[in-house]
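Page 37, continued from 36.
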């Protein structure tokens, strides 16, 4: 089993869609399997992975469980947006082919379980970069 398969199995077993960097570091510390060499191999494998995606802030996200999230994330990256207001988000959703209410519900849940992008109580989506800078 490769290092990435071990991490993926752990995430599926614990029903995690994402794992924050601090949680991953604690898991490494508690588990003798994760010697420094294996940790290094894992991060090399993550750079090429289509199953797990490592974000700029170190968060690792299961692609299969977060498809709607990545559609929005990729859109914001290509449009160079660090924030979407509620109306812009609604327009983006309306423009997506075959989008339905269940996908919107999943997207909202996915936004709540990651650090990379958050949705505020007002429906504004904010990326990690904007949160980090403390911009308004």
């Amino acid at each position: 089993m490769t290092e990435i398969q071990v991490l993926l199995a752990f995430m599926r077993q614990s029903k995690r869609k994402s794992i924050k960097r601090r949680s991953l570091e604690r898991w490494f510390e508690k588990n003798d399997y994760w010697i420094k060499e294996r940790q290094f191999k894992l991060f090399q494998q993550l750079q090429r992975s289509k199953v797990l995606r490592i974000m700029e802030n170190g968060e690792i996200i299961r692609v299969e469980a977060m498809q709607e999230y990545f559609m929005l994330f990729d859109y914001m990256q290509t449009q160079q947006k660090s924030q979407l207001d509620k109306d812009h988000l609604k327009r983006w959703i309306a423009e997506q082919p075959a989008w339905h209410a269940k996908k919107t519900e999943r997207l909202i849940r996915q936004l709540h379980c990651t650090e990379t992008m958050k949705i505020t109580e007002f429906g504004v989506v904010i990326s990690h970069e904007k949160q980090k800078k403390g911009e308004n």
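The first helix runs from residue 3 to 13. Flag for discussion at group meeting. The radius of gyration is 16 Å.
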